[in-house]
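Subgroup meeting minutes
Present: P.N., E.W., G.H.
Scribe: E.W.

1. P.N. recapped why we're keeping a running log of single-chain structure predictions: easier to compare across weeks, and new members can see raw inputs and outputs side by side.
2. G.H. added today's entry (335 aa).
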Amino acid sequence: MFFNRILIAIAGLMLLVSPGAAQDMKKGTLTEVRTPPPTAQQVKVGFYPVSIYQLDMASNTYYVDTYMWLRWKGDIDPTSTMEFTNMVEEWGKQQENLLEEPQVLADGSRYQIMKVEGRFVQPFSLADYPLDKQRLSIMIEDTTNGAETVSYVIDQKSSGIGSSLRIPGWRIDGFTSKTFTHDYGTNFGEEATPSAYSAAQFSIEISRPMSFFYWKLLLPLFIVLGAALSALLIRPQDVDVRTALPAGALLTAIFLQKSYSDGLPDLGYLILMDKIYLVVYALIVLTLIRAIFAYRAAAGADGDVIRAVQATDRKLLMAAVLAFIAAVIAILLWR
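Output recorded in log:
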């Protein structure tokens, strides 16, 4: 038993050292399609979201209330084999066909419209938080008929976003739609089962307003940094006050960072705001160190030495402010 555990541990370490081995286990590709296969029954798909709510960055989920419709010619009814592949909590989905039976239109095609409400998942990229841009997507896929049998086509003319749709704290930038062939790279253990299926994706592109970054995140941090740097304006002999200001500012900055981090998922990388906080931490710590060394230099010294120390402190204060501004600009430009 002990020997088996050792083998399992060694195998786990080998996967960590050789991530390529784990990558080799992954199968499947998602390829964008612009022209459907000539042998496939074409299904025109439309999308019209009217409400998006409970956008949760920590869980990478959001609720969507939308109208969807399908229009097709052929013997296959795509409404019975359509699946929302990025929907979570399938048990909580509300899907209602607004027509009891597909309606036959004048051109011989059949038409069905439905109202769908549910919770969807979309992995968010937060590297540029709080200036990040996100994409809220709904992905549908035919679960039974292969891509050579049924192929989705986007109803570009009729699809769009409801005029009343609002997402608090976000700006809606646009709407995109694409069709794909999802090749799973496997027949799921049955030779007759297709490996590739048609899929369609509808996405709403959103971004945070710049005011959120400037007034809610950057301004409080700048005030905290200013409080720490103001210690350099106090007499070097008053070491208690000069060290208390940056020490208190350091704790405040930590709490400020925690306040916005609590609304985000656990990430293995630094986001844009984290980089700015690292600059602030460095400046506050350097201010604290300067206060200690200035006290040692001014203790028992004559007036000329004290004035020289104070003049240096003022120069360092200006240099710190300029360094902070330059660092923020550099981080924003090189993100």
